Amino acid sequence: MTEKIRKRITFFGSVQGVGFRYRASHVANALRLTGWVHNEWDGTVSMEVQGREEEIDKMIEMIQEGTYISIEKIYVKQLPLDEHEGIFEIR
């Protein structure tokens, strides 16, 4: 079984006002990922997500399939696990 990882991801493009956070939350819950998603002041969306890498990659693919969502660039940073986190939330 693959180990859990945690990533901080910043999404650039048409990612605010298009249902991005709600789609991310729905997909995360379906894939049993934990973390959070948040709109930033500069028009980007930040997310910290925790789970198996394959599931995180699948989450990003599924978010991109959303109507009106257009991800132009993604910045990813690996983080230490949060062992106490149990849900995925919209902030």
Would you kindly provide a brief summary of this structure?
This protein has helices at residues 20-31, 53-64, and strands spanning 4-14, 34-39, 45-52, 70-79, 88-90. The protein has 91 residues and is of the alpha+beta class.
Describe this structure in words.
This protein has 91 residues and is of the alpha+beta class. Helices cover 26% and strands 42% of the residues. It has two helices and five strands. The chain has a five-stranded mixed beta sheet. Helix 1 (20-31) runs antiparallel to helix 2. The protein is globular. The mean pLDDT is 95.
Question: What is the tally of helical segments?
Answer: 2
How are the strands of the largest sheet arranged?
4-1-3-2-5
Report the end-to-end length measured between terminal Cα atoms: 31 Å
How helix-rich are the residues, as a percent range? 25-40%
Number of strands: 5
- What profile does the largest beta sheet have? 5 strands, mixed
Structural class: alpha+beta
Give the averaged pLDDT, no decimals: 95
Shape: globular
Order of helices and strands: EHEEHEE
Rg (CA only): 12 Å
Low-confidence stretches: none
Strand fraction band? Answer: 35-45%
